[in-house]
Amino acid sequence: MDPYRVAYEQAMTELNEITRKFDLLRLQKAQVENLINAFRPLIESADQTAAIAG
To answer: Which of the two residues, 13 and 43, has the higher pLDDT score?
Structure first.
């Protein structure tokens, strides 16, 4: 088998794995951002309560 072809196939395999991991990280980032946005009113309310009490 041609060594350049082997190198190309290995590089494509690695690139596909990097792409898969990147997509997973992007999904996790979106989930964390959604969680932060969901809790934001609660956090802001707690901050306001602490400021009033403090």
So the answer is: 13
Rounded Cα–Cα distance for residues 4 and 24 (Å): 30
Tokens 């400021």 sit at which residue? 51
Look at the alpha carbons of 29, 34, 35, 41 in this order and tell me if their dihedral is positive or negative.
positive
Supply the pTM of this predicted model.
Answer: 0.69
Give me the amino acid identity at 4: Y
Nearest to 11 by CA among 24, 3, 25, 22: 3
First to last CA, the chain: 74
